[in-house]
Design brief:
Four Helix Bundle (Hemerythrin (Met), subunit A), 2 domains, mainly alpha, elongated, single chain, 13 helices
Amino acid sequence: MKIGYRTIKTALGTPIAISIAQLFGVSNVVSAGILTILCIQPSRKRSVESAVHRFFACLLAIVFSIIFFELLGYNPYTLAALLAVFIPTAVLLKIEKGIMTSTVITLNLYAFDSIKLSFIYDQLLLIIIGIGVGLLVNLYMPSLDKELKTLQQQLEDNFQIILKEITLYIREENMDWDGKEISTVSNILEEADELVERDRENHMLRDQHSFYNYFQMRKKQFDILKQMLPLVTRLPEKDNVSEEIAVYFEKLCDAVHPGNTAIIYLYELRELKEGFKKKELPKTQEEFETRASLYQLLHELEEYLKLKYQYKKSDVKSPRTRWTKKKKMEKT
């Protein structure tokens, strides 16, 4: 059985908070441990937000307790009325995350059966110790890079399979693909979203989050891949143009990686389009439908590659010069 970091933090933070409370001679030291447990969150950002919400909610609970208990008495009916007013107020002030924590302080004051400055001071110390220890313990967050790189590799492996299957469909060599990689990619992207969000929340001062940008780009590419599939499966027949596109898809299969070499394939795609303009026009309705589907497929491919090209700085020099020289030579 694997023990998670939150479990370890809880196991360490709770006795530390209680020990500090005992050191200061605070009453109800167990409450410090409870406050620490409630403050341990899965990310630094959530931990800070939780600490702020819980601190102000506890202060508000002390004010409400003084007013209600001193005016209406220390009985269950007063406690019910206090909570009935306090909870909506906390929600209105957008500090609802601190409701559970502040309830601990309210119950402490209720159990003491009297409002004294010394006891309120004790409660303030409990709040500072419990929330403070929880916040400090939660400052350490394990790196998620390993898990994200694993998901990245799994995603790219499945992208390669999908592109390979598209190639086979165009060549009519495999028409019984079950498409399981589509659901696999969806699951990977969903898992990556959760991890990436946690990673962003753990690095609040970063302006750039490379994994976030990467998976957002892949998510958009995946949407385009799904749009390609109906085009490929509806191809009426195979011709010489479809074979050239199949060869191009084969190249893309080997080019799925974290780097950015999309510019190379964008220019190859441009050359492919230019070559198609010189091809003999379709003669039959079926040939026309095939050619139209292939051109639509090229358009989707271009959008697919543009997403990769725009996502970060290119890893290769632009082949623009080579392509421009070729066009000039053709004109002369």
